[in-house]
Amino acid sequence: MELNNILTICYLIGSITFILGLKMLSNPATARKGNLIAAGGMSIAIAGTIFLYKDEDGNGLHNYLWIFGGLAIGTLVGFLAAKKVKMTAMPEMVSLFNGMGGACAGLISIIEFGRLSSDLSSGKSIHGMLVIIFLGLIIGSVSFAGSMVAWGKLNGKVKDFSFPGQQILNTIMLFVMVCIAGYLVLNITPENSYLFYIILAGALFYGIMFVLPIGGADMPVVISLLNSFTGVAAACGGFLYNNKVMLTGGILVGAAGTLLTILMCKAMNRSLLNVLIGSFGGTKAGASQVSASGGTFKEISISDSAMVMAYANRVAIVPGYGLAVAQAQHICHELEKLLDEKGVEVIYAIHPVAGRMPGHMNVLLAEADVSYDKLLEMEDANDLFKTTDVVLILGANDVVNPAAKNDPASPIYGMPILEVELAKTVIVNKRSMKPGYAGIENALFFQPKTSMLFGDAKSVLQQLVSEIKSL
Amino acid sequence: MIFLGIEVIGRVPSVLHTPLMSGANAIHGVVIIGAIIVMGKASDTNYAAIGLGFLAVVLGTLNVVGGFVVTDRMLEMFKKKK
């Protein structure tokens, strides 16, 4: 009893640190400390479970060798992976870790089901347990499979794939799974428990089909959604073991994750449903007509670009995913310093969904030591564009596409954008004229004040820096 | 608890969306506790349960440790500003 009380306190501490940590994470000043606090609470909860946990009959845990072995391996691999990963690959990493959590929840359900089905004859009422096990299984597996697909997509290893009727098939699949699960809950026998594995396979398959058709640009939203799924799966585990800290953590993440997902959708001015079902694919045909009438664009040389920027009063840099892929954040900062020495005011205009994840660009530029107050959010940047001489767009596309404002037929219509066309000159660095993630042409590139500067963001910036130095 | 989650996240600057998602990701790693319990309860002869439980512990730990470390790395960069 004594020990159990201590464990309860451990869990209470864990729960409180999660809430506190999450709260602090939402404020730039306290975010880091919040993360550490939550990590500390997690350690306490884990240590408490290992040493103090007793089941209903008062038996402690055994298999310590396995538990510590697993913890050691997981810690080592997780730590190294997280330390080594490049800042640009962050979104993939989060998705991967999320998948691990989902898989963990799924495995727990599998083992618990095995345990339950082996003593069906005991006549205990297990309906409630089964419901929770199935919930944990389905949600965990979907989250795992979905996260893996999302990971592959962000890596560029998995391509978008969809076929007509896919949504209908998915819905049917989900419905069938729920039906089988419901049937099993009510009439479980040793003979039909194989159906459990059919549900498992179905859930994994559903997870894949769920994420596969969703476009790369929407991946952050999907990851956030899957994140909250895993939270719910963890909460199922909490119900299963009547474990307070799992419940708190799981539900907290489930709710916070859902809200975060909605916030992200709002930043792109799309509804969640639209993201999940819409996938830009269907509108590609309509948009390509615009490109036919797009007209011509003009190129600008490195030396000319260097010239315009060096003699400008204010230069606004609009970073996008191209900058991240090229790992050009450091050289970008160098350019900024150089211009600064020449008396040019440099600002960064950050669109809320620039890059692959909201805040992605801020993280990247912060890595390169770019001062925080030079990073302007969209509204502030839009106020300044009117008085900006040169806008340098580095690998961003959809977030500066004027079609979002003036073409109701465009799939991104209504999304708030950086109104770069208000500036005097716009220089666009891209690798080619290929459209961005949304798969649509950008009329901005064909405007008379826009010049194209083709090439990899990093090498272009390097050339710009040496050119400006020699001016 | 649901309201708490919503209230906690309520007004987040979009700058922090990524770290926040990553932090929340680490927190749902609490499933690890379930994995530990399942592992610790498995009888010595139930190799399937031990094997799967072991895998669950490894994956859960990955989620927790990796999640917190990645989040810390992201936030470290914000810290350096000034």
Fold topology:
The complex is a heterodimer of chains A (471) and B (82).
Chain A: H1 2-25, H2 31-52, H3 64-84, H4 90-118, H5 127-155, H6 166-186, H7 195-211, H8 219-241, H9 244-267, H10 272-278, H11 284-292, E1 298-299, H12 302-310, E2 314-319, H13 321-325, H14 329-341, E3 345-350, H15 360-367, E4 375-377, H16 378-385, E5 390-394, H17 403-406, E6 425-430, E7 450-454, H18 457-469
Parallel strand pairs in A: 1-7, 2-3, 2-5, 3-4, 5-6, 6-7
Helix pairs in contact in A: 1-2, 1-9, 4-5, 4-8, 5-6, 5-7, 5-8, 6-7, 8-9, 12-18, 14-18
Chain B: H1 2-9, H2 17-27, H3 31-41, H4 47-80
Helix pairs in contact in B: 2-4, 3-4
Explain how this protein is built.
The complex is a heterodimer of chains A (471) and B (82). By secondary structure, chain A is of the alpha/beta class. Chain A folds into three domains: 1-84, no CATH class; 88-278, no CATH class; 294-469, TPP-binding domain (Rossmann fold, 3-Layer(aba) Sandwich), CATH 3.40.50.1220. Helices cover 61% and strands 7% of the residues of chain A. Chain A has helices at 2-25, 31-52, 64-84, 90-118, 127-155, 166-186, 195-211, 219-241, 244-267, 272-278, 284-292, 302-310, 321-325, 329-341, 360-367, 378-385, 403-406, 457-469, and strands at 298-299, 314-319, 345-350, 375-377, 390-394, 425-430, 450-454. In chain A, strands 1-7-6-5-2-3-4 form a seven-stranded parallel beta sheet. In chain A, strand 5 (390-394), helix 17 (403-406) and strand 6 form a beta-alpha-beta unit. The longest helix of chain A has 29 residues, at 90-118. Chain A is elongated and about 85 Å long. With 82 residues, chain B is an all-alpha fold. The model of chain B has no long low-confidence stretch (mean pLDDT 81). Chain B starts with a helix and ends with a helix. The chains are: A alpha/beta (471), B mainly alpha (82). Chains A and B meet through helix 1, helix 2, helix 3, helix 4 and helix 8 of A and helix 1, helix 2, helix 3 and helix 4 of B.
